[in-house]
Amino acid sequence: SASQDEPGELRFPAGFVWGAATAAYQIEGAANEDGRGPSIWDTFSRTPGKVYRGHTGDIACDHYHRYRDDVAIMADLGLASYRFSVAWPRIQPDGTGPVNHRGLDFYDRLVDELISHGIDPVVTLYHWDLPQTFEDRGGWTNRETAEAFADYALAVYGRLGDRVKTWTTLNEPWCSAYLGYSSGRHAPGVQDPAAAFAAVHHLNLAHGLGVAALRSAGAQTIGITLNPASVLPLDEASEADQAAVRLVDGLHNRIFLDPIVKGEYPADVLEHLERFGGTPWLRDGDTALINQPIDVLGVNFYSPTYVGVREGAPGNVEEYPGTEGIEFREPVGPVTDMGWQIEPSALTKLLTRIGRDYPGLPLLITENGAAYPDGPGPDERVTDTLRVNYLDGHLRACHDAISNGVDLRGYFVWSLLDNFEWAEGYKKRFGIVHVDYMSQRRTPKDSARWYREVIRRNGLAVAGGTEE
Ligand code: PNW
């Protein structure tokens, strides 16, 4: 355990899983190959003004054709595990229609390639690329989307379930619901708070129906990935600020975690929803369907959220409807290229809190990482000291959480490759491996070499941050 540390080393528990993560639309390209249908991100990225310089995922990292090279890079890093997502529109081009076997063939090849290199696949079934046909009928505001998700999950499980042990249903439903249907910064670009809350519920329902389907089909380890916010008060001592924390925590965290883990929506959240048309989408028995036992909770973490009550503050009403009068503090101190504040201790607090309030649930960091512009290179070497510092600090934060008794089982860096960063297009680079989008050449950055060393020693050198 964390107590076995040798002097000069910060060791992780034996069997701690070291991985890297990606998502289909961000890396695959091959948007029109082998029968793939259009997704909401194809539509959105083609809508003028939505994505930086009109970038799309049409080609991305061309991973669809280069996956063998990419798996070789993973093997060279010593990754124990690789988290990727399956593109629903490759499997069911029309959303609900017959299964497209050529789409499944790709993931079949990928899984075989991973396993032959000793890398354990972790599948995300939905990382935001909803088949467009659903959106034409209301997308996640329509209950039928949730019902269809379970059929899709079974189709993927039927092909990969003999080799894939770990399954997660959704990636960051907070983003799908609030960025997709309230702020409109992500696909499908709707701006309607009531629609966002309907989407929350149908995403929760999709998760629950998906878990039940995977469970009855025999899946071994099943979970979901959230991006729980580490919501902190501007003033620890202020009761008003603590109330602001509770509201934002309710809208971001408990609205997902409570139905999933405890089988009920929190009373304070339900009361807040009365301001947005209530819960017309909630049917008897829904929370029981959502409340399926899960084996693991994936946590994506990048940055803290500081809030407090301040008179006249506009709130962040696009992402958190009804937060007028709450100040969301601008980042303080160093930020990444996303403008996101860097504060590793907020990750320790978050993990410790989840461990306390939702006990008995093994946790995985399914994403953590930082965007930084290219430093020198990319020739032989890409120097990304700031990314190494970010990762090093957050791994220490994970280690602190484990020392606090948190059941954290693994860590997946976001991301293996520079990739299509959603509304930011290819402008933001999250990879530990550089991608030259003209030549598709991959160049492991210094952070990749550093990560290989972390994996090799199952921990960090206390001096930290550099190779031996
Ligand atoms: C997550 N925000 O996305 C996703 O799971 C990844 O696909 C993504 O590349 C990564 O984090 C880095 O952004 C988010 O604006 C994108 O609040 C945007 C936001 C949050 C998460």
Automatic annotation (TrEMBL):
<feature type="binding site">
    <location>
        <position position="302"/>
    </location>
    <ligand>
        <name>substrate</name>
    </ligand>
</feature>
<dbReference type="InterPro" id="IPR018120">
    <property type="entry name" value="Glyco_hydro_1_AS"/>
</dbReference>
<keyword id="KW-0378">Hydrolase</keyword>
<feature type="binding site">
    <location>
        <position position="414"/>
    </location>
    <ligand>
        <name>substrate</name>
    </ligand>
</feature>
<feature type="binding site">
    <location>
        <position position="26"/>
    </location>
    <ligand>
        <name>substrate</name>
    </ligand>
</feature>
<dbReference type="GO" id="GO:0008422">
    <property type="term" value="F:beta-glucosidase activity"/>
</dbReference>
<dbReference type="InterPro" id="IPR017853">
    <property type="entry name" value="GH"/>
</dbReference>
<comment type="similarity">
    <text>Belongs to the glycosyl hydrolase 1 family.</text>
</comment>
<dbReference type="Pfam" id="PF00232">
    <property type="entry name" value="Glyco_hydro_1"/>
</dbReference>
<protein>
    <recommendedName>
        <fullName>Beta-glucosidase</fullName>
        <ecNumber>3.2.1.21</ecNumber>
    </recommendedName>
</protein>
<feature type="active site" description="Nucleophile">
    <location>
        <position position="367"/>
    </location>
</feature>
<keyword id="KW-0624">Polysaccharide degradation</keyword>
<feature type="binding site">
    <location>
        <position position="127"/>
    </location>
    <ligand>
        <name>substrate</name>
    </ligand>
</feature>
<keyword id="KW-0119">Carbohydrate metabolism</keyword>
<feature type="active site" description="Proton donor">
    <location>
        <position position="172"/>
    </location>
</feature>
<dbReference type="InterPro" id="IPR017736">
    <property type="entry name" value="Glyco_hydro_1_beta-glucosidase"/>
</dbReference>
<feature type="binding site">
    <location>
        <begin position="421"/>
        <end position="422"/>
    </location>
    <ligand>
        <name>substrate</name>
    </ligand>
</feature>
<keyword id="KW-0136">Cellulose degradation</keyword>
<dbReference type="InterPro" id="IPR033132">
    <property type="entry name" value="GH_1_N_CS"/>
</dbReference>
<dbReference type="GO" id="GO:0005829">
    <property type="term" value="C:cytosol"/>
</dbReference>
<dbReference type="InterPro" id="IPR001360">
    <property type="entry name" value="Glyco_hydro_1"/>
</dbReference>
<feature type="binding site">
    <location>
        <position position="171"/>
    </location>
    <ligand>
        <name>substrate</name>
    </ligand>
</feature>
<keyword id="KW-0326">Glycosidase</keyword>
<dbReference type="GO" id="GO:0030245">
    <property type="term" value="P:cellulose catabolic process"/>
</dbReference>
